[in-house]
Amino acid sequence: MEKPPSAEPQNRYGETGGENVVDVPLDDLCHYRGKVAEDIISEDGALLLPRGSDIPLMLRTMPGITKTLRRWNREFIPVQVSSDITEEEFEAVLRAIEPKTRMLDPGLARRAIDQVEEVYSRISENGHSREGMETLEKEADRLARDVMRSPQILLCLGKVKDSDEYTFIHSLNVALLSGYLASILHPGDEELVKTMTFGGLLHDLGKAKVPQEILNKPGRLTSEEFEIMKTHSIHGMVSAVASGVSDRRLLSVVRSHHERWGGDGYPDGLRENRISIHARIAAVADVFDALTAKRVYKDPMRSREAVSMILESSGSSFDGAIVRALLLSVGLYPPGTVVELSDYSVGVVTGVRNKDLLRPQVCLSVDSRGRRPESPAIIDLSLGTDLFIRRSLNDMGKGVVYGRTES
């Protein structure tokens, strides 16, 4: 291969079906992830590197490869650059934005998850959990205070790794997002934020009475199984009352979060403003998290696709004002979305600034030449830069995995 005229990596877009191919100097290979774009052949016809060789793996398993290539007068390797963001790189993004964007206390989140699980367990056995409910309310108050200080709530939501924990992490996520939407709809109303955060933790309480084989069935429910599933809203309200919950706002969240604006929800077929504002907020939060979560029977939907689906149902299934609050909260490119910019750099959206939904803040993980910088750079597309988003590539989903506390 003839050496490019510059020592800088050379982009060759479109040469392999639209992929980004870069001629990379051997000394810079350690800054790239991707695969060798074409067979590397020696002058006497020997295959030095086959097309498709993984660059990081090659450098680890063949530490002397660069010396070998130089002996055959090779100074550059054509690399099909990978724009994927790994879990480790996403965690680096979270660390990079932490000083500027306050994240949720993971210890607080973990305690809330554990307490939800404790309440569910007691209700499953006894039908109520009075002491557990009092403790859970205190955890909800702490969570609500964090919600009011967290400007990018999607990056605080928990990822579901274990299907056994889905219900409890889902309850946390609905609590966080419900509280956050309440703060957008009614700024300064701390009481509403607290109510919605606690209500989110309680909303699926009745699933403690639904058989596990139905909750975790890896396929479509039969009509009979779905009817059993639908009973969870009534079971939840009964269990909440038995556990000492008397606040009608909280009870409406538990009973009515599956009611729909057009009247085709359950259990009571309520419509429009006959559904409490608390249940309407929880409904949007519940559906968004359910769509973007990994389950035994489905892969997670991208956050952007989930927002689009909820937007399409505004005014039919969901209160339009709450859907607009969701859109203002997460933007057209929700936090966690991996995007490619107009200069072919790649980064993770970390939030919306200046209410410009098309030009969010992005934490770059791959520069315009395909290199992985030592530390991510944060740019705000709304501040007059010429850069814009070319396309959405992927979705890192929720930002945090809350591991089990050590016993």
UniProtKB/TrEMBL annotation:
Gene3D superfamilies: Hypothetical protein af1432. Residues 145-342 form the HD-GYP domain. InterPro entries: HD/PDEase_dom, HD_domain, HD_GYP_dom, HDIG_dom. CDD domains: HDc. One of its GO terms (molecular function) is transferase activity. The keyword Cell wall biogenesis/degradation does not apply. Residues 167-291 form the HD domain. It comes from the Bacteria. Pfam families: HD_5. Residues 1-20 are annotated as: Disordered. Keywords: Transferase. This is Putative nucleotidyltransferase with HDIG domain.
